[in-house]
Amino acid sequence: MEKIKKYILLHLTVMLFSFTSVYSKAASGFYNREGLTSPMLYLFLFLMLLNCALYAVIWQKVIKKFELNVAYANRTVYLIWSQIWAVVIFHENLSVNNIIGMIIVFIGVLVVVAHE
To answer: How far is it, in rounded angstroms, from Cα 112 to Cα 18?
Structure first.
């Protein structure tokens, strides 16, 4: 049970980091529509930086509980979370290549975790 809690915390941390791309894309959209005068641009830039700072602190605490190769292999799940947010938040479409790539990443994580 303790091992499951560690992995949940690890993946919640990776999920937190994946919001950086959401904030970045939102800031880019406001910049493209309204330019440098958009207050929302600066709000999302601030959220992006705050998110990175929080992630950095939490990540350092979480990786102490894992071998580095396991922690960094699991961090690649960021790509899967980013694709999920692209579909759910920005209503983008997934291509077959996106899905194949996510499956490969997931299999790679499983291989590393299986050898822990």
So the answer is: 21
Query: Tokens for 98?
Result: 């996106």
Asked if 16 contacts 50 with a C-beta cutoff of 8 angstroms, the reply is: no
Where in the chain are the domains?
A: 2-114
Helix/strand/coil percentages in the chain, nearest 5: 85, 0, 15
pLDDT over 70 at 116, yes or no: no
| DSSP secondary structure of 61-99 | HHGGGS-HHHHHHHHTTHHHHHHHHHHHTT-PPPPHHHH
User: Could you tell me which of 2, 52, 44 has the C-alpha nearest to residue 25?
Assistant: 44
The residue assigned the tokens 């915390």 is 9
Our CA angle for 103, 105, 111, nearest 5°, is 100
From CA 70, how far away is CA 103, in angstroms rounded? 18
* pTM more than 0.70: yes
